[in-house]
Amino acid sequence: TGPVATAVAHPNIALIKYWGKRDEHLVLPRTDSLSMTLDILPTTTRVHRDPEAAHDTVTLNGRPAEGEALRRVIAFLDLVRDRSGLPHGSVVASENTVATGAGLASSASGFAALAVAAAASYGLALDATALSRLARRGSGSACRSVFGGFAVWHAGPDSGTGAEADLHSYAEPVPVGDLDPALVVAVVDAGPKAVSSRAAMRRTVHTSPLYEPWAVSSRGDLTEMRAALLAGDIETVGDIAERNALGMHATMLAARPAVRYLAPATLTVLDRVLGLRRDGTPAYATMDAGPNVKVLCRRTDADRVAEAVRDAVPGCTTRVAVPGPGARLVDG
Ligand code: DP6
Known about the structure:
By secondary structure, the chain is of the alpha+beta class. The chain has ten helices and 16 strands. Strand 3 (21-23) and strand 4 form a beta hairpin. Helix 2 crosses helix 3 (128-138) and helix 7 (211-231) runs antiparallel to helix 8 (234-253). The chain starts with a strand and ends with a strand. The model has no long low-confidence stretch (mean pLDDT 95). Ligand DP6 binds next to helix 6.
């Protein structure tokens, strides 16, 4: 490892959602979550550590990063500087294939790639678990993008906070049976979100009377999800994912003031997904901090599902994703 390192990471979509922290600083979640890493929309991040530099220079898609995005990258590099003992600044260049802030998991691929590249650039020899814990500090969902395929993020024992709890909160791969899944990513609106997921999750935890009941039921969902994945039972996997996501959005709708990411077009897609199921095609929807919908289905049904969804909403674009690789170093 030299002072320059480049890493690629892919986004992941949660089938059991992460929504709510018990420690904001360490990014420790309230509940376990489980996701599929996609094979599309990667982020490539290059970190060039400069022993002469006192500050970081960060560009996102060729433009200087500013505001909250810049603050989060610098705070993340501060962690890496602390651990490595190297106080050096860096030039960071990140290329994203997706519009940031649209609920399409760009922070997950972004911080997973940054964790891998920065660790290498600052000479930290970290195994996958340690990289996952590091990526988590940038954005919670990023800890799952360290791994390919399906991954579970352990919340860790809920008693602890501090260094001890930090050790126990990381992602790891989940065993999956004979499943041939696809996620149809349906973009109904590519604009930035009105409320960041970080702020929305804080408000939900603090004000929503539905939050605790969802968190409790999500723990049961995770147990059932693991069994359904192992059994290769796409109907049950999809059913659990859909109810977990709708439940998460219900907690937000009950927050004060309400957080509503779902748009009319989102509901139109949900209706179309119901219609597909009624006609015998297993298809199930999940939504994150935005109006876009990801539809879980069999790989062999994916093109037909994508077409049905595009038909339902004028201007909607779709991409078909299958399980993709974990974050890794590349040349460049
Ligand atoms: C709705 O990981 O973006 O996509 O930890 O505050 O950076 P921070 O939040 P983030 O939240 C993702 C929330 C979600 C569900 C999920 O991916 O599990």
